[in-house]
Description:
The complex is a heterodimer.
Chain A: E1 6-15, E2 18-28, E3 33-37, H1 44-52, E4 59-64, E5 67-68, H2 74-79, E6 82-85, H3 97-105, H4 111-116, H5 121-134, H6 149-163, E7 167-171, H7 179-192, E8 197-201, H8 205-211, E9 215-219, E10 222-227, H9 229-234, H10 236-241
Parallel strand pairs in A: 3-8, 3-9, 6-7, 7-8
Antiparallel strand pairs in A: 1-2, 1-4, 4-5, 9-10
Helix pairs in contact in A: 3-5, 3-6, 5-6, 7-8
Chain B: H1 2-26, H2 33-58, H3 66-84, H4 99-102, H5 118-142, H6 148-167, H7 169-172, E1 178-179, E2 184-185, E3 188-189, H8 193-219, H9 221-238, H10 243-269, E4 271-272, H11 279-292, H12 298-317, H13 322-336, H14 340-346, H15 349-356, H16 373-381
Helix pairs in contact in B: 1-2, 1-8, 2-8, 2-10, 2-11, 2-12, 3-5, 3-10, 5-10, 8-9, 8-10, 11-12, 11-14, 12-14
Amino acid sequence: MQNSILDLDQVSVSFDGFYALTDLDFKLYPGELRSIIGPNGAGKTTFLDVITGKVKPTKGSVKLRGKSIIGLSEQKISRMGVGRKFQTPRVWENLTVQRNLELTASPTKTPWALLTKSLSSVVREEVFKIMEYVGLAPYAKLQAGSLSHGQKQWLAISMLVAQSPDIILLDEPVAGLTDDETSKTADLIKSLAGEHTVVVIEHDMEFIRDLGAPVTVLHQGQKLTEGSLEEVKRDPRVIEVYLGQTDEH
Amino acid sequence: MKLFKRLVPWILLAFAFFILPAMANSELFGFSQFRLNLFGRYFSLAFVALGVDLIWGYTGLLSLGQGIFFSLGGYAIAMHLLLVTKNDFTTGANGLPKFFENYGVDNLPFFWEPFWSFPVSVIAVFLVPSVIAGFVGYLIFRNRIKGVYFSIITQASLMVFYHFFNGQQKLVNGTNGLKTSTTEIFGLVAGSDEAQILFFRITLILLPFAFLLCKYLTSGRFGDSLVAIRDDEPRLRFSGFNPTPFKVIVFVVAGGLAGISGALYTVQSGIVSPQFMSISMSIEMVIWVAVGGRGTLVGPIIGAVLVNYLRSLVSEALPEAWLFVQGALFVFVVVLMPDGIYGWFTKGGFTSMLAAFGIAKKTATYPKVDVDESLREESFKA
């Protein structure tokens, strides 16, 4: 039995008595690709907040490679190899595309290193390769704020790739993308899995099917069920919570 | 052309350094020693403006307490000058600076002692403000205080320092401040024309160094991370950066620049007083940067010199009108020139200013289909 890279055990998060997560168990193994779905308010984003240190769980344990990460700051957890893309594409709008990527790709993240050392040519080339791959190379010198929504999504994902964390958490990576871009994103994510451990939160079922990964369904802060998309879709409880939302199939 | 653009600031600087003192000497074009001295003060204010630009323009933290560091620099140099000068105007009967007599102080307060030494005093001019900025900054930033709360805390700190200096007659002559114009430095009386020209030149020699320091800080990935803090700080945390040391460093540098600024301003205006720590003074510093162009390094220098020059001109013509003009200037800049004077020139600001009045098109539309009727017809056919 392989050791899990991420292990949530009986995690609850309460905001003034309202439970966003209730006794959630979740395990992730290295190299795995996992999709998480669930209706609005199911606690998907809170789940990511707990892993990345933005929210401290009210109870339960969160372990990264067997070590508890509860109470650590966001930047410490990030340096331990957890990267996150937010629901809205959050990029630094007044920096150019290239500089957005170079900043996240910086191997050392202390002020002193940023002042005195220039970026190695290996990292520079890596950044350029990523830009080529996602088609942002022509916009390298353009301010990120002037990109379209889809391009910002791509840039946000690219920044994660450049940061190259062990665990990549993607919150709605294809929101607002065209069908073409969506399938390209699916390819990119599949190529990331294996080397990285990837968690994808999405509403787009087409996209989830493209990924072909095991699906975890969250509902009211709890894990409803787990399995392949087909299995999950047959589950009557899932149909119930998604009633009225499953007509796309 | 590009080379020329890069040379312009240096040419202006050389002009100010060599030609202005000569003009003042011979009263050419009505330019007098008095004017030269005023320009020296304006340029010394450019240092504090550079600091405000670093902390506010680049990092997005609006500090309303730069007056603290400005005054501390001024007090440091003034204390030194008062101590080492021995003449009838500044020295009292007991050998201490004269104001101590008024309050019956016979022993020099302990914190005056280090200021006997010139090197120590010069270092203290930027070190004392930097250390205090570092201490205050660390406490504020570590607790993730930002935005308007940061502004309020810095302003409150300013009030604390103001009242402390204002009330301590026996230590720093309270509200009267320390007068440096009758002191002696390098064998010259600080208020004399020769010394003032010297101060003017020292200011102009130091200014490029301050500029280059800021340039060094803002051009590389360190500068990028400052802009990243301004744009989206949590995102930077999730990328593995701890923003706190970045912000502390910038606040320390801004504090040091303010200290140098205060020292140069003090020797050129002849006095340092708690008035430098008034709330309005620190807000004016922000206005200079906004007017000149925040987020650029040339902007704050232009802003500090131009706004203060304008202030002199307006005050000479209509003594009561300046505050109205300043308010109008600030509103004008915020509404119509968000990038300031410098940004206005470099970013084609005239068209966007017309756009604010609804006269001109804001930007070229893309794709062209939206404006070009013939293109639309083509696409319908297809």
